[in-house]
UniProtKB/TrEMBL annotation:
This is NAD-dependent epimerase/dehydratase. It comes from Chroococcidiopsis thermalis (strain PCC 7203). Residues 3-237 form the NAD-dependent epimerase/dehydratase domain.
Length: 342
């Protein structure tokens, strides 16, 4: 099968390309040529900018891919251009989306005041009422554009009369090349031999869906190559759902840390401590559909996924920590004071 991957050189993209190539497909990657990626020699490349996608239409016509996998359709305009360009060229588009489409995400962020949504979320769970959540944020995740909105992307892709769509909604993804360095704030404390990491009780018991990059990539590859995925929406996430305390304890064990996770009640925290999340709202999804329909299962175990991520993170410490990771962590002096009092 001929498959075109748009944006296959950053984080999840290369893993998707490698999976598709290993399955025996003819894979071409459309990218700007600005990021070096570990891709097989047999991969073809088309260089160009996403903003000028329409100018490459004749090139795409010559390639004539059967399936187009778009790794980063961020906006409604992205999706409209995508579907218009590949109408009459490709048979199907697979668009990568996010768990942030759900109302549960807005409840968690305290943007929507509706009651807590039941979990695990299914592909039919309620979506957010409010669009463009990042528009008013001073710092947007991964420098997403102000008009970022996966809900609108999904509407365009799934409602085209002339080109079939498939949506894969991703969880919080970790692994090598993670631009958010999700494990780093915790691993740093472990490697500095802190005796404990203090978590507020509400965070310690919170549950969210995570996914290791290679497993997520395998799920995307299945969605791109299985005819049953036409017109379908899928979740992918780790099968094992842990509380944050359990997850970080597992990270610590794999990292060889001798400390422990300590859970404390809110009254033990500084009076000015505030985390802008509704932690009563869990953010986890059901992955039954992709497992039953496409035969998905993890290709990398949780232990190996954590070990690989930890090894990479230790050899690639970030120069600065993303404001989107480790928000719940206390400074060392406060943490020490709390530990002495319990």
């Amino acid at each position: 099968m001929k498959i075109l991957v748009i944006g296959g050189t950053n984080f999840i993209g290369p893993a998707v390309v490698r999976q598709l190539y290993a399955m025996g497909h003819e894979v071409t990657v459309f990218h700007r040529g600005k990021t070096a990626a570990d891709l097989p020699e047999g991969i073809q490349h088309i260089l160009g900018d996403r903003s000028a996608l329409s100018q490459m239409k004749s090139e795409f016509e010559r390639l004539s891919p059967q399936v187009v996998v778009d790794m980063f359709p961020y906006t409604e305009a992205d999706a409209i251009a995508l579907m218009n360009i590949f109408q009459g060229i490709a048979e199907r588009v697979v668009a990568i989306s996010s768990m942030d489409v759900y109302r549960a995400y807005a409840v968690f962020l305290q943007i929507e005041s509706t009651p807590v949504e039941p979990v695990p979320l299914t592909e039919n769970s309620a979506l957010r009422q409010q669009l463009h959540l990042f528009r008013e944020m001073a710092e947007r995740p991964l420098n997403a554009p102000a008009d970022y909105e996966k809900i609108l992307v999904e509407r365009v892709v799934m409602n085209s009369a002339d080109l079939t769509g498939t949506i894969v909604r991703l969880p919080m993804v970790y692994g090598t090349q993670d631009p958010l360095n999700r494990l780093f704030p915790y691993l740093k404390r472990m490697d500095e031999d802190r005796p404990a990491i203090v978590l507020p009780e509400s965070i310690a018991q919170w549950r969210g869906s995570y996914g290791y990059v290679e497993n997520v990539a395998y799920a995307i590859a299945l969605a791109a190559t299985n005819e049953r995925a036409k017109g379908r929406i899928y979740h992918v996430a780790d099968a094992e759902v842990l509380t944050e305390a359990e997850r970080l304890s597992r990270v610590g064990r794999v990292a060889g840390w001798q400390g422990k996770i300590v859970t404390v009640a809110t009254e033990s925290l500084p009076t000015d401590w505030n985390l802008p999340y509704n932690t009563a709202q869990y953010w986890l999804v059901d992955t039954t559909r992709i497992r039953q329909e496409l035969g998905y299962s993890e290709v990398v175990t949780l232990e190996k996924a954590l070990k690989t991520t930890i090894d990479w993170q230790r050899s690639h410490p970030p120069t600065e920590i993303s404001p989107w990771t480790g928000k719940e962590l206390l400074d060392y002096a406060t943490e020490d004071r709390i530990l002495k009092s319990i």
